[in-house]
Amino acid sequence: MDRAAMKQLEAWKTSRNRKPLIIRGARQTGKTWLSEEFGRTRYEAVARIDLMNNERARSFFDGDLDVSRILRNISLETGVPITTDTLVLLDEIQECPRALTALKYFCEDAREYHVIATGSYMGIARHAGTSYPVGKVDTLTLRPMDFTEYLRAIGQGDDSCGRIAV
Predict the structure, then answer these.
(1) Which one of 7, 70, 78, 113 is most buried, by most CB atoms within 10 A?
(2) pTM of the model
(3) What fold characterizes domain 5-153?
């Protein structure tokens, strides 16, 4: 698939002021797929943890929010050495409010790492008392495919004049 949001992710990756990125949107819009595809094609490795299905991964954010410790645990869990050319993907972040808070510390203490978190609109906002890292994250809202993206996905892409090929 060719999602227009991929260009936004490329700009984020090369930004001098890059912060952890939250990709949010309705369920089933392709947040996880887009993040994984971006990591697969633009990074040496992807260290992905699913915070919905992995209770042990949620525990990485218990206690202090020391970024070095969190990254070591993610590396051990995924079997992926985390370097500055590894995409750290925190999938379904709404299931672990402390992980959302930890993004502040990724921004302040470890900006050299590339961190993307995915989550649904309602899920990210639903936890009362959770400290949202205002000013410490970049955000991208992913919507369902638009018509042009859909046509490309089914092999009916546009030609050089911008017209739809039929």
Answers:
(1) 70
(2) 0.84
(3) Rossmann fold (3.40.50)
